[in-house]
Design a protein that fits this description.
The complex is a heterotrimer of chains A (about 375), B (about 270) and C (about 280).
Chain A lengths: L19 E10 L2 E11 L4 E5 L6 H9 L6 E6 L2 E2 L10 E4 L11 H11 L4 H14 L15 H13 L5 E5 L7 H18 L2 E6 L2 H7 L2 E6 L2 E6 L1 H6 L4 H6 L4 E8 L2 E4 L2 E4 L5 E7 L5 E2 L19 E13 L3 E7 L4 E7 L7 E7 L4 E3 L2
Parallel strand pairs in A: 3-8, 3-9, 6-7, 7-8
Antiparallel strand pairs in A: 1-2, 1-4, 4-5, 9-10, 11-12, 11-14, 12-13, 14-20, 15-19, 16-17, 16-19, 17-18
Helix pairs in contact in A: 2-3, 2-4, 3-4
Chain B lengths: L10 H24 L17 H7 L2 H34 L5 H13 L2 H14 L6 H11 L1 H14 L2 H9 L4 H12 L1 H17 L2 H6 L6 H11 L3 H32 L1
Chain C lengths: L3 H29 L3 E3 L2 E3 L5 H8 L1 H34 L5 H13 L2 H12 L4 H8 L14 H26 L2 H9 L4 H29 L3 H7 L6 H8 L6 H29 L3
Antiparallel strand pairs in C: 1-2
Helix pairs in contact in C: 1-12, 2-12, 3-7, 3-9, 4-7, 5-7, 5-10, 7-9, 7-10, 8-9, 9-12, 11-12
Classes of the chains: A alpha+beta (about 375), B mainly alpha (about 270), C mainly alpha (about 280).
C-alpha cells in the first residue's frame, strides 16, 4: 500500500541527486502516532504537494522539515548533510505560513528584509533584493504599508516575498491559499505555478484540496493516517490510483467489488478482462470513462461514427437519475448489484434503459 | 491539525524564574513559620513550635471587632461599587455622551493614583461638608475608589457578550428591562462574581484611602497598623497567616471563575 | 438599539456619583493648593505661595528627587524580576503555565501590610536575616543598614510591585501569535535575535503599562517608608501626610499632592501615546 521512497521522474538520462531525502520519518505525540515511518525523495526544482485530510500528518511533516518539531525517529537529509539535527534558523528552508505570520510591528519592506538582516546579508545587497522580491509578487507599491492594512491576498504575497528573498533551497507552503476566497484562490494558484517555474526553487506545498494539488504539482504525495498512500504525477495518480482511498479522494470514481476468475473480473452484469490474483478484488472506474454507446448529439440525432475497439466493454443499464451540470450530465445507473455514476457531455434528457460502453484499460485494480 | 508547540528547555531562565518565585514567597513563608515560633519574631532558626500566638489572637477582642468592621465595609463597598460599576460599564459600552472619554479616565483614575491623593481629596470633601469621619466615610471612600475595578471587569464581560442574544430577546417581545434582567445580567454572572470577589479583597486590605477617612472604629488593616507602630508581636504573624490563608482560597476561586468566563465567551 | 431612556439611566447615576465624589474632591484639592494657612487658619486667598515653597525649599526638592529615584529603582528591579518570569511562563512553562500563573498572583492578594510587616521581621537587627547570617557565622553582629533605609523601602516595594509588573507583560506576551516566533526562526533568527526583534517590541505596551503602574504607585507610597524606611527613607508622600496631620498645612500638602498628580497624569498621557504607536493590531 505505501510505496518505498519514490525517485521522481527525470527527463535527463542521468538522474540528478534528490534535494531532500526523508528516511523512515516518524512522529509521535504521546501515544498518538501522527507520522508512521515515511520515506520519500524530493527532487531539486520540482513542485511537490503533500495532499491529505486533516489528521493525515501532512502539516506535521512540513513542520518537521521546517524544524519546528523534532522527529521521534528517522532522518531528514538535504544535499547530503543531515537536516533534522539543525535548528530552524540554520536550515536553508523557508516557510510560508497558513496565516502568513507577518510581523505587525514592521512594514512590508522590513518584513521582507527580515531574513536578510538577521543573517547579516551584505548591507548594499539587501535593498536591491528586497525590491526585486516585492516586484516579483507585485507588491512594490506597498513597501511602506503595515500588514494590518493589507488584504488577505496581499499579505500572502508579502509572505511569499519574505520567504523567497532568502533564496532558500526549499520553500514550504502550509495551506497558504485556504484563507482566500474562491476566485482569489484560483488566481493565486496560477501565479504560484508560474512563480515557481520562474525562480526554479523547489516548492513543497501542503493542502487538503485535491483539485488544487492536481493543478499545481509535478508530483503528489498522498498521505493517509500518517502513511504514504501513493506518490506519483497528477495524471498518473488519477488514471492509475493504487488504492481505493486514492481513487476516491482524488476526483470521483466508481468502486467496483468484483470477483476475478480465469482472467476476467465480474461485477454483477459487468465483465471485463483482468489479470492478477484470483478472488475478490476492487476496481476503480472513473465516471467520465463510461460513454453512451451510439453517440447521440445534442439534438438527439444518432450518428454511426462510433469507434468500437476490441477493448470495449458494453452493457445496458437503467438510468435512475440525471443531474445536469452545465457542460456535462451526471447519470446514476442501476446495474443490478451496483450503482454506477457516469459523466457524459451535455445532451437532452435521457430515460429508461440505455447502452453504455467503457474501455477495459480504464478499469484499474486497486488495493484496499 | 495543530501540533503542540514543543516548549524547549531553558535551564538558566528556569533557574532565574525559580529565584524570583523564591523572592516573592520568602516573606510569606517567614511570616507563617514564625507565627508558630515560641520565641516570637526574629532570630534564627525558629524553635519551639507553638499555637500560643493563635490562642492569644482568638482572645483579642479588638482584632475581631476590627475584622467585623472590615467585613461590613467590604460588603457594602461591593454592593456600591458593583451597582455603579455596572451602570458605568453599560454606559461606556452603549451610550455616547459629551465628556465620555473624560469620564472613562476619571473612573479609572483612583486605580492608578497613589491612594494618599484619593484619600486626602475625599478627606477634604468630608471636612468641607462637615461630615464626621467614621466607618461610613470609609465605606464611601472604598466604594468610590473601587468603582474602577468593577467597571473594568464588567466592561470586559460586556464586550465578550454576544449582542445578538439581546436583540433576539427584544425580537421575541421582551422589554429592555426584561432583557436586562433575563439576558444581560445572567451573561455577566461570572464577571459580577469575579469583580465582587476582587473588590471585597481589595476593600479588606485597603489602607491608604482608609487612613485618612477613619474615625473611631478601626478596620482590620488599621488595627494591625496601630499595633505595628507600637511594637511587633507574633500575634500579628498569626493574624497575617490567617489573612494569607483566606486570600489564597479567594484568589483560587476568583481565578477559576475568570477562566470559566473566558472559556465560555469563546 | 438602546433607547434614550436606557442610555440616560445607565449614564446619569455613575456620572453624578463620580462627579460628586471624585471630580469635586480632586478639584477641591486643586483649589486648596492655591490657598494658604495663616496663624493656624485656612485662608481662601489665591496665591502661588505653596508652589514657590515647594520649588525653593531644598528639603522638599531633595525628598521629591529621592522619591523619584526610589520609584525608578523599584520600577527597574520589578521589571528585571517580572519580565523574565513572564517570559518563562509564557514561552517555556508548557502545561504548568496556569498553576505557575496562579502562584504569581497569590501574593498580590496577601495584604500589603502583611507583606511589609514580613520584611520588617526579616530585615531587622534581631530579624530573621541577621539571625540567619549570624547562625551561619557570616557576620558576628547585626547588620544595621538593612532596615530603616532607602534600600529597605526599595526592597519592600519591589517585592510588592513585581507581580503587578508581571501581569500586563504576561498578558502581552500571551497575545503574541506563536507563528510569529516560528516565522522569525524560519527566516534565520536564533532565540536571542527573535526575542530582541520580535518578542520584545510586541510586548512593549504591556511593559509600559506595568512600569507606569509600579512607578506611580511607588512614588506616592507612604506606608513602606513608615514601616521600613526610617529617617533616611522618607518619601514625598510622608511629607504630605504630616502636612495633613501634625504639621497642619493643608494648602502646602495639597500643592505637593498636585505635583504627584501632575507627574502621574503626564506619565499616563505619555504611555498612552506610546502604547498607541507601539500596539500594532
Amino acid at each position: 500500500m505505501s510505496l518505498a521512497y519514490a525517485i521522481p521522474p527525470s527527463h535527463s538520462a542521468e538522474a540528478a541527486a534528490p534535494l531532500l531525502q526523508i528516511r523512515s520519518l516518524a512522529k509521535r505525540f504521546g501515544a498518538h502516532e501522527v507520522l508512521k515511518a515515511i520515506s520519500l525523495d524530493i527532487a531539486s526544482g520540482e513542485f511537490i504537494t503533500l495532499l491529505g485530510e486533516s489528521g493525515s500528518g501532512k502539516t506535521t511533516m512540513l513542520r518537521l522539515i521546517a524544524g519546528f518539531e523534532q522527529p521521534s525517529s528517522g532522518e531528514i537529509w538535504m544535499n547530503g548533510s543531515r537536516l533534522d539535527t539543525l535548528p530552524p534558523y540554520k536550515r536553508r528552508v523557508n516557510t510560508v505560513f497558513q496565516q502568513y505570520a507577518l510581523f505587525p510591528h514592521l512594514n512590508v519592506r522590513d518584513n521582507v528584509a527580515y531574513g536578510l538582516r538577521v543573517t547579516n546579508a551584505p548591507g548594499g545587497e539587501v535593498g536591491g533584493r528586497v525590491n526585486d522580491a516585492l516586484r516579483m509578487v507585485k507588491m512594490d507599491a506597498f513597501a511602506t504599508a503595515r500588514p494590518a492594512t493589507l488584504s488577505g491576498g496581499q499579505q500572502q504575497r508579502v509572505a511569499l516575498a519574505r520567504a523567497l528573498v532568502n533564496r532558500p533551497l526549499l520553500l514550504l507552503l502550509d495551506e497558504p491559499l485556504s484563507a482566500l476566497d474562491a476566485n482569489l484562490r484560483k488566481q493565486m494558484q496560477s501565479e504560484l505555478k508560474s512563480l515557481q517555474r520562474e525562480v526554479g526553487i523547489t516548492f513543497l506545498f501542503v493542502t487538503h484540496d485535491q483539485e488544487e494539488a492536481m493543478g499545481l504539482s509535478d508530483r503528489i504525495a498522498l498521505l493517509r493516517n500518517g502513511a504514504l498512500e501513493q506518490i506519483a504525477t497528477p495524471r498518473e495518480i488519477y488514471s492509475h490510483p493504487a488504492t481505493a482511498y486514492a481513487a476516491q479522494f482524488i476526483g470521483q470514481t466508481n468502486l467496483l467489488h468484483a470477483l476475478v476468475h480465469v482472467g476476467s473480473a465480474t461485477c454483477g452484469a459487468l465483465r471485463w478482462p483482468a489479470a492478477g490474483p484470483e478472488g475478490a478484488a476492487l476496481f476503480s472506474l472513473r465516471p467520465e470513462a463510461i460513454r453512451l454507446n451510439g453517440q447521440v448529439d445534442r439534438n438527439g440525432r444518432e450518428s454511426r461514427d462510433v469507434e468500437n475497439s476490441v477493448d470495449d466493454i458494453r452493457f445496458s443499464a437503467v438510468i435512475k437519475q440525471q443531474l445536469y451540470g452545465g457542460g456535462s450530465e451526471l447519470l446514476e445507473l442501476d446495474c443490478g448489484s451496483q450503482l454506477l455514476r457516469v459523466k457524459i457531455p451535455a445532451r437532452g434528457p435521457l430515460s429508461g434503459m440505455q447502452d453504455f460502453v467503457f474501455s477495459a484499460t480504464d478499469v484499474v485494480r486497486v488495493s484496499e | 491539525m495543530s501540533a503542540a508547540t514543543t516548549t524547549c528547555r531553558a535551564p538558566l531562565l528556569a533557574a532565574y524564574s525559580a529565584m524570583v518565585f523564591a523572592f516573592i514567597y520568602l516573606p510569606i513563608v517567614v511570616l507563617v513559620v514564625y507565627s508558630f515560633n515560641r520565641d516570637g519574631v526574629g532570630g534564627f532558626p525558629p524553635r519551639h513550635l507553638t499555637l500560643d500566638w493563635y490562642r492569644q489572637l482568638f482572645l483579642d477582642d479588638a482584632i475581631w471587632t476590627s475584622v467585623l468592621n472590615s467585613l461590613i465595609v467590604a460588603a457594602c463597598s461591593v454592593a456600591l461599587s458593583l451597582t455603579l460599576g455596572l451602570l458605568a460599564a453599560l454606559a461606556l459600552d452603549r451610550a455616547s455622551f459629551p465628556g465620555k472619554s473624560l469620564f472613562r479616565r476619571l473612573v479609572l483614575l483612583p486605580l492608578i493614583l497613589p491612594g494618599i491623593i484619593t484619600g486626602l481629596s475625599l478627606l477634604m470633601f468630608a471636612v468641607s461638608v462637615g461630615a464626621h469621619l467614621s466607618l461610613f466615610t470609609v465605606f464611601l471612600g472604598h466604594g468610590t475608589a473601587l468603582i474602577s475595578v468593577a467597571t473594568t471587569e464588567l466592561f470586559a464581560g460586556l464586550q465578550k457578550m454576544d449582542r445578538a442574544q439581546e436583540e433576539a430577546s427584544l425580537d421575541l417581545g421582551a422589554t429592555p428591562l426584561q432583557t436586562f434582567l433575563r439576558i444581560t445580567l445572567p451573561n455577566l454572572k461570572l464577571s459580577l462574581i469575579a469583580a465582587g470577589l476582587l473588590i471585597f479583597t481589595l476593600s479588606m486590605d485597603e489602607i491608604a484611602v482608609t487612613f485618612f477617612l477613619i474615625g473611631r472604629d478601626n478596620t482590620l488593616p488599621l488595627e494591625i497598623w496601630g499595633r505595628l507602630r507600637r511594637g511587633m508581636t507574633p500575634e500579628i504573624n498569626a493574624i497575617s497567616t490567617l489573612i494569607f490563608a483566606v486570600s489564597v482560597i479567594l484568589i483560587v476561586i476568583w481565578f477559576h471563575l475568570r477562566t470559566r468566563a473566558e472559556r465560555k465567551a469563546i | 438599539m438602546y433607547s434614550r431612556a436606557y442610555k440616560s439611566i445607565v449614564s446619569v447615576p455613575p456620572l453624578l456619583w463620580v462627579g460628586l465624589f471624585l471630580l469635586f474632591p480632586y478639584a477641591l484639592m486643586l483649589a486648596h493648593s492655591f490657598w494658604i494657612v495663616r496663624d493656624g487658619f485656612l485662608v481662601h486667598q489665591w496665591t502661588l505661595h505653596n508652589y514657590r515653597t515647594l520649588v525653593t525649599n531644598p528639603v522638599y526638592v531633595q525628598v521629591l528627587l529621592r522619591s523619584m529615584r526610589i520609584a525608578a529603582s523599584v520600577t527597574l528591579c520589578a521589571l528585571l524580576l517580572g519580565y523574565p518570569l513572564a517570559y518563562y511562563l509564557s514561552f517555556h512553562a508548557g502545561a504548568r503555565k496556569e498553576i505557575l500563573y496562579q502562584l504569581v498572583i497569590v501574593p498580590l492578594w496577601v495584604s500589603y501590610l502583611v507583606r511589609g510587616y514580613a520584611w520588617k521581621t526579616i530585615l531587622g537587627s534581631d530579624g530573621v536575616l541577621n539571625g540567619f547570617l549570624q547562625y551561619l557565622h557570616v557576620t558576628s553582629a547585626p547588620v544595621g543598614f538593612l532596615l530603616y533605609s532607602p534600600f529597605a523601602v526599595i526592597l519592600m516595594l519591589t517585592h510588592i510591585y513585581t507581580p503587578f509588573v508581571f501581569l500586563p507583560i504576561y498578558a502581552a506576551l500571551e497575545h503574541i501569535p506563536r507563528p510569529l516566533v516560528e516565522a522569525s526562526q524560519d527566516l534565520g533568527a536564533g532565540p536571542l535575535k527573535t526575542f530582541w526583534r520580535v518578542i520584545l517590541p510586541l510586548s512593549l505596551p504591556g511593559l509600559l503599562a506595568g512600569a507606569t503602574f509600579a512607578f506611580v504607585l511607588s512614588l506616592g507610597d507612604f506606608l513602606a517608608p513608615l514601616l521600613v524606611g526610617g529617617a533616611s527613607g522618607t518619601m514625598i508622600a510622608n511629607i504630605v501626610q504630616s502636612l495633613f496631620g501634625a504639621a497642619y498645612d493643608w494648602p502646602l500638602g495639597a500643592a505637593i499632592s498636585m505635583c504627584i498628580l501632575l507627574i502621574t497624569v503626564s506619565l499616563l498621557f505619555l504611555t498612552e501615546r506610546l502604547e498607541k504607536r507601539w500596539s500594532f493590531r
